[in-house]
């Protein structure tokens, strides 16, 4: 079974590289872990195109991944690189403790590996769960979805008054993120999926609704920050949904028969991972945690979180935010104490002091601005808690890849995220194997090049 899977993945790779006109210039043999950061960047570019396209998802990789993903999710080819580098075998267990929409998990599954994902946001955790369940009968999915579509269309045509969200939920949405008619249709479609419920199919049916809400039904725009652009009076909600169901069904037809490896997803906090997983059970970690960049993951996914029912009011949203590593000032709470863990990390203290100095110098006094220094400390404290907790569940010799980016979001003070996390990891007993440059991005505020790196760590053999 596994060799079939590998053959499939290799074929996908070959097709892709030929069609892009860049066959790998480096042999297929595994890369040496001690390639320098510059060499690694050159390697990534030679293999996947220029810096600007390194983070893109390539067409031959799209199956399953494109069912629903964040704009900024790292690409499947990056996961494949590290899976192949880390000398994995059939029994290896791959973990993504910040699995988001499941790029690592789907890619691990395509490669035949057992995988575990942790994700604190229920919408993203749901997406990862659905994207790694390939047992669904693709024909049954089509039949059932067509029934749903017929029923929903009848209701849509019959009802004259537009449905609305309860006020508690409406206030949580970004203003005008969806126009009244498309919202009405989406609410009816959701209700029909629930009424004609088939447990096996419900996940993929709802995730397909989430996908089209964001991509074609709403007024949302990701650039990469989420915002509202334009105002779509109407949208073919049911038609778009059926199209997406056909895509999912096609993917399941091809990949469903290869579904041999087990994947488990936990809707939980990566800072408390040893309460979820067995000691010494993980061989490989490939992940991209949040960065200290003011990005609010609950905002990016707000529309689908509300429409699919993962948050029914402000309190639900607050509870979701509380489960996340602090990476933006809108998610800081009284009683937060992760910052205590970085009291002796000099670079974190220096950056926090510099941010605060800059804030005073610039006369910035809003509540959020006053919190910039604190959230930076809370972020690194949260990541320290995660890395400390993780140690017990790693097998001796486990290999880890953390994709992290430098940031300058807080009054332009440069935060070298990878370098600091590397230092923290070493103080916790990890070995720093390499800091690979994946790509660079231009900082909007400073026009400086920011590094996105892969921090490669090893948990010692004994
Ligand atoms: C950069 S995204 C990961 C994207 C992912 N690689 C993908 O393929 O979609 C970081 C994720 O970490 C999640 N997260 C933040 N704090 C967390 C925590 N304490 N435990 C688990 N997940 C968390 C966020 O909700 C977000 O989905």
Task: Name the beta content range.
Answer: 5-15%
Distinct ligand kinds: S-adenosylmethionine
CATH topology of the largest domain: Rossmann fold
The total of beta strands comes to: 9
Kindly report the spatial arrangement of strands forming the biggest sheet. 5-2-1-6-7-9-8
Q: Whole-Å distance between the termini? A: 34 Å
Average residue pLDDT: 90
Number of helices: 17
Oligomer: single chain
Give the CATH superfamily of the largest domain.
Vaccinia Virus protein VP39
CATH class of the largest domain: Alpha Beta
Secondary structure class reads: alpha/beta
**How does the major sheet shape up?**
7 strands, mixed
CATH architecture tag of the largest domain:
3-Layer(aba) Sandwich
Helical percent range?
A: 40-55%
Counting structural domains, the number is 2
Shape estimate: globular
Protein described:
Helices cover 45% and strands 13% of the residues. It is built from 17 helices and 9 strands.
What does the secondary structure layout of this molecule look like, with pairings?
Blueprint: H1 2-20, H2 37-48, H3 76-85, E1 93-96, H4 103-110, E2 114-119, H5 122-131, H6 138-158, H7 167-170, H8 180-195, H9 199-217, E3 220-222, E4 226-228, H10 237-255, E5 263-267, E6 282-287, H11 297-300, H12 302-307, H13 314-322, H14 346-362, H15 367-370, H16 372-390, E7 394-405, H17 417-427, E8 431-442, E9 449-458
Parallel strand pairs: 1-2, 1-6, 2-5, 6-7
Antiparallel strand pairs: 3-4, 7-9, 8-9
Helix pairs in contact: 3-4, 6-8, 6-10, 8-9, 9-10, 14-16, 16-17
């Amino acid at each position: 079974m596994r060799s079939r899977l590998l053959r499939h993945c290799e074929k996908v790779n070959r097709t892709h590289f030929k069609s892009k006109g860049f066959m790998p210039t480096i042999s297929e043999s595994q890369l040496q872990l001690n390639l320098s950061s510059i060499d690694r960047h050159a390697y990534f570019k030679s293999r996947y195109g220029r810096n600007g396209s390194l983070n893109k998802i390539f067409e031959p990789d799209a199956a399953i991944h494109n069912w629903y993903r964040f704009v900024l999710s790292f690409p499947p080819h990056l996961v494949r690189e590290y899976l192949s580098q880390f000398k994995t075998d059939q029994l290896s267990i791959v973990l993504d403790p910040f699995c988001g929409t499941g790029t690592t998990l789907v890619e691990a599954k395509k490669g035949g590996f057992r995988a575990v994902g942790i994700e604190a946001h229920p919408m993203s955790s749901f997406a990862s769960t659905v994207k790694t369940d390939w047992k669904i009968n693709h024909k049954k999915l089509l039949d059932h979805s067509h029934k749903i579509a017929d029923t929903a269309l009848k209701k849509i045509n019959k009802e004259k008054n537009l449905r609305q969200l309860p006020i508690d939920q409406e206030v949580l949405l970004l203003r005008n993120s969806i126009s009244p008619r498309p919202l009405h249709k989406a609410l009816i479609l959701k209700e029909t999926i629930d009424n004609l419920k088939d447990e096996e199919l419900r996940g993929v049916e709802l995730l397909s609704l989430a996908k089209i809400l964001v991509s074609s039904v709403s007024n949302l725009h990701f650039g990469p920050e989420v915002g509202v652009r334009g105002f779509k009076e109407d949208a073919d909600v049911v038609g778009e949904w059926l199209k997406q169901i056909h895509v999912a069904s096609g993917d399941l037809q091809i990949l469903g028969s290869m579904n041999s490896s087990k994947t488990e997803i936990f809707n939980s906090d990566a800072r408390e991972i040893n309460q979820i997983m067995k000691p010494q059970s993980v061989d490989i970690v490939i992940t991209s945690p949040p960065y200290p960049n003011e990005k609010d993951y609950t905002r990016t996914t707000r529309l689908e979180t509300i429409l699919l029912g993962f948050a029914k009011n402000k309190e639900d949203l607050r509870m979701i935010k509380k489960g996340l590593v602090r990476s933006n000032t809108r998610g800081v709470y009284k009683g937060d104490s992760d910052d205590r863990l970085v009291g002796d990390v000099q670079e974190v203290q220096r950056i926090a002091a510099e941010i605060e100095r800059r804030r005073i110098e610039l006369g910035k006094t809003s509540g959020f601005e006053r919190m910039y220094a604190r959230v930076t400390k809370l972020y690194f404290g949260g990541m320290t808690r995660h890395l400390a907790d993780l140690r017990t569940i790693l097998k001796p010799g486990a290999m880890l890849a953390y994709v992290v980016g430098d940031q300058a979001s807080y009054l332009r003070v440069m935060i070298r995220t990878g370098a600091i996390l590397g230092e923290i990891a070493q103080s916790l007993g990890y070995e720093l194997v390499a800091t690979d440059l994946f790509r660079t991005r231009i900082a909007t505020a400073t026009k400086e090049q920011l590094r996105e790196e892969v921090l490669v760590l090893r948990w010692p053999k004994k």
